[in-house]
Amino acid sequence: MPKRLFLAVALLVAQTMPTLAAGKDLPGPKTPSTAGPAATTPPRGTGEGIDNAAQYKHCIALARQKPEEGWEESLAWSSLGGGEPARHCGAIALIGLRQFEEGASRLEDLAAGSHSDVKLRAGMLAQAGQAWLLAKNPERANAAQTAALKLVPDAPDLLVDRAQSLAEAKNYRDALADLDRALKVAPDRVDALTFRAAAKRYLDDRGGAEIDVARALKLDPLYQDAWLENGILKRLAGNEAEARQAWLKVLDIAPTSAAADLARRNIELLDVKDR
After folding, report:
1. Which of 103, 111, 129, 165 has the fewest CB neighbours in a 10 Å radius?
2. CATH number, residue 9
3. 137 domain residue, yes or no
4. pLDDT tens, position by position, 101-145
5. Which domain holds residue 122?
């Protein structure tokens, strides 16, 4: 699951519990199995005795770290009247189980019927958008993120997320527009600057891309995605030595990251060319 999705979950855990109203229990699961180890910690109390705020944090943490156990926990809690918090926990567990479409759909349904305030419903839709991206469905991701932005206009996280969906659909011009909006609100966001550099590169604005990458690296010299993009721009400019150095920097900073995987592939291509 993307890091931003986990951060959104953490924010919801911190803010949502006092305002979530009880709802219907989860319908029957569409996951491939509920086999595997049972939840190591049962719902904290039974019936009226459950400490709902503590249980919500516990269930979400379990769903993130051990999704099978989190799913079992959500079912048990739901049977005891856990309502929306239990359903939310179940949806996050499903995403952890790689049931991305089912988890996203449940989050959308939960947001549509929730009694929470607009920010919390927007957060659920943001999570749904992330899950749709994991399901390789940028159109549904875009729809969820657009719905969230109607609730909280110009939220930088949502604008960056929707830009990712637009870029996945190869709509780089609209992605650029969302990133421009995000950076007006949060001008020092390194991820948005780096992502905007990539969008500009796809739109043949290499000069603008180089400016954004330079600013991103000035703000955070250890941001591996910016070094990856820096290497791509150097390679396109014909400076293979500096491109290699940028990609080696990625490997040094974050050797197990997705950016490092791409950097290795690019270095391998340089090596093949040099033979």
Report:
1. 111
2. 1.25.40
3. yes
4. 999 999 999 999 988 789 989 999 999 999 999 999 999 999 999
5. 1-152
Secondary structure class of 168 (helix, strand, coil): helix
Q: Which residues contact 258 (CB under 8 A, 6 or more apart)?
A: none
Split into its structural domains, the chain has a count of 1
**What is the rounded CA–CA span in Å between residue 267 and residue 227?**
13
The SS3 call for residue 241 is: helix
What does the block give as tokens for 151?
Answer: 């609730």
> Residue 95, Cα to own-chain centre: how many angstroms?
11
Per-residue burial over 17-42, b if 16 or more Cβ lie within 10 Å, else e, is: beebeebebbeebebeeeeeeebeee
Of 105, 26, 102, 99, nearest to 59 by C-alpha is 26
Q: What is the distance between the alpha carbons of residues 219 and 97, in angstroms, rounded to a whole number?
A: 36
DSSP 176-232: HHHHHHHHHH-TT-HHHHHHHHHHHHHTT-HHHHHHHHHHHHHH-TT-HHHHHHHHH
User: 100-113 and 118-134 are packed helices; what angle lies between their axes, rounded to 10 degrees?
Assistant: 160
163 within a domain of the structure (yes/no):
no
How is the chain split among helix, strand and coil, in percent rounded to 5? 75, 0, 25
Q: Reduced to 3 states, what is the DSSP secondary structure of residue 235?
A: helix
Tokens encoding 147 = 């719905």
pLDDT tens per residue, range 213-247: 999 999 999 999 999 999 999 999 999 999 999 99
Q: Which pTM was predicted?
A: 0.77
Q: Residue 200 falls within a domain, yes or no?
A: no
Residue with tokens 């609100």: 185
Tell me, yes or no, whether 216 lies in a domain.
Answer: no
